[in-house]
Amino acid sequence: MNREPIIPHNFQQTFEARIEALGRISEAEDNLVRPSFTPAMRQVNTLVGEWMRAAGMTVREDNIGNLIGRYESSMPNAKTLVIGSHLDTVKDAGRYDGTLGVLLGLACVEALAREGRRLPFAIEVIAFSDEEGLRFHLPYLGSKTIAGVLSAEDLQRRDENGISIRDAVREYGGNPDLISADRKVSDDLIGYLEVHIEQGPLLESLGLPIGIVTAIAGMNRVQITFKGEAGHAGTVPMHLRRDTLVAAAKFIAAVEQVGLMTEGLVATVGQIEALPGASNAIPGKVTISLDVRHQDDTTRLNAVDALYREAQQIGQHSRVDVAWEQIAESMSIPCSPQLIEMLSQAAEDEKITPYFLSSGAGHDAVQMSRLAPSAMIFVRCRGGISHNPAEYASSIDAEAALKVLIRAVTGYEQGV
Ligand code: HGY
Ligand code: MN
Ligand code: MN
To answer: Looking at ligand 1, which atom is closest to the CA of residue 387?
Structure first.
């Protein structure tokens, strides 16, 4: 059995310093927000690229801004194992969502390089661009590009300033016409591994540093627009109004009810815009987001259908028009049984009880599973808090995850 590389004694300090350094790179003064194709994205890709080069990797950015560090194999024409996650964030984000997985992929290669070890396959550490979908409301731009499923139509989506993904890519330095050539092919890959903060309370409640992900919930992202009639708050009698904020409020209450009544379903309205947005004007147009998830695709789709019908009924009753636009959908995906077994064995070898859990959050593994067997390691998340500046994972738990990752990677014989 290959002896797995020794973790450097200063891993924890290095990890904490890097989390700190990346956590300071933001597009806002007072909170962490790193949308795609911004100067903050350029800064983190440059910094992480330097760390990758220092670890003996060749480094490039593809046309969608994926940062790709490659650690060559000892064998010619070897296949590749990808280890990845993302460096973009939500608004007012935590410092570990995505970043932790990129840093652990980097640390895995650093441990190998420090001992001059090469494996019978290459390793690529990928920091995917735009997993969150914050700027264009379309998630997974980077991993969809690698999986070859980002469409020309997708590139037409615009941000709140009317800038399309195509234009943002060009402004960032990529060529949108070459994005389709950035895809990877299944034959070149042996697998995909991602380490991610759990973003939930389970591992902490069980006193475990890590868990192994069995499946990732399917998701629908919808944009719903209520169109009625703006009017004077002081002169239009209540029964004559076509008030879109009232209609949206009734719908949002219905979203909560469907979520509460359906076992295992989560449904969220995270964004709302009411126009004209004056305190003395009846809102004539309201736009909201809807996020619906479940481990079972049929249950999720039934819930989305029920909410669609509810929105139409509310619209009729409130005499407002309701436009329903599906922005994105991803099916629930099972992780690779072989890779789950490999991670489970590696955890046991590290004297960690393997604990298996599903993911309610989406991850780049959803897209990478189109190309190769994929699996994830979750790291304990303090208080289960995420998408929040209070998000925290300890460097001790990160080190436990790294040891499991390295054991799994160095013991990986499958498909080479
Ligand atoms: O929305 C999600 O599940 C992930 O944070 N992108
Ligand atoms: Mn996230
Ligand atoms: Mn994430």
So the answer is: 5
